[in-house]
Predict the structure.
Amino acid sequence: MNKSTKKKVFWAVFSPLIALLTVWAVLKQNENVSPSVILETVKGADIPLLTAAGVCAFMYVWFEGVAVRTIAKSAGYRRNRASGLIYAASDVYFSAITPSATGGQPASAYFMVKDGIPAGVSAAVLVLNLMMYTVSAVVLGVIALVTDHRAFFDFSAPSRVLIVCGAVVLTLLSSAFLLLLVKGKYVFAVLRRIAAAVKSSRLTEKIDRAEKDYSSCAAMLAKDKSLLLRAFVWNFLQRASQTVVPMVLYLALGGESRYALTMFSRQCFITIGYNFVPIPGAMGIADYLMIDGFSGVVGSEAAFSLEMLSRGLTFYICVTVSGIITLIGYIAKRKEKNENDKT
């Protein structure tokens, strides 16, 4: 077992442990909140709004699939909705069980390559998509600041530090992805040196082919202004669909509509605050920020329940469903390969 495989296995085992510890810690913080209390709270919720929250949580995965398909189509590779869903689900699942927010990109690239999209083109498509995904978070933060700047100051000092750090890191990442899109040759130069160091001519040839595909695709994508706008819109909708879930759940549980915008603004800041943390799914940090942010509106006890329900939908259930979709996609690709080998 090589180092990369060992790392994946470690995080696949360690992530569920972190999840269990996080849930235990949240429940321990407020002993008035228990699974039975949360279940009773859900039973009394508005069903249409509760359903809407579930749909929004799923649309987070769906919109990413649409965004990747849109960019790939502009690069000359039209793929169906099912393929887009698999690209997105694999990204969401592996990002959640690895300490890096970009941990799902190789998984998406794997399925894209299996679908006949060259590795270089897949890389360019995913870099552009990741850039717009990151920019969308920053834009949502700006919207929250403009519409309800007081929400930021209601967070505790540690939370405000996390939010500011997150905003800085996400802005820098957006710039880095843009630089990578237009100056990818430097990355390939490093890869070529590695190939030379291990004296692998075959690897060097693969890198050369990938660079050629990447460079031509990246140049084409960067010049397509309408594509950049469409990619941003789909990524913005992806971010917004997840960000709006706590607000919808708040209303479903009987919250006052006059505080709806405040709940949305707070979740925007929360998302920025945990997005850069190198922990699978930002478990622990995201929970802390949500409880801290929501307590000022609904009180401590209700904030715990709302946080558990929100994270349950947007993270735990979403990741589980994404994992199932990824597994189905993998099995389908294996079956397709076996059938092709027979013919």
Notes: The longest helix spans residues 300-342. Confidence is low (pLDDT under 50) at residues 23-28.
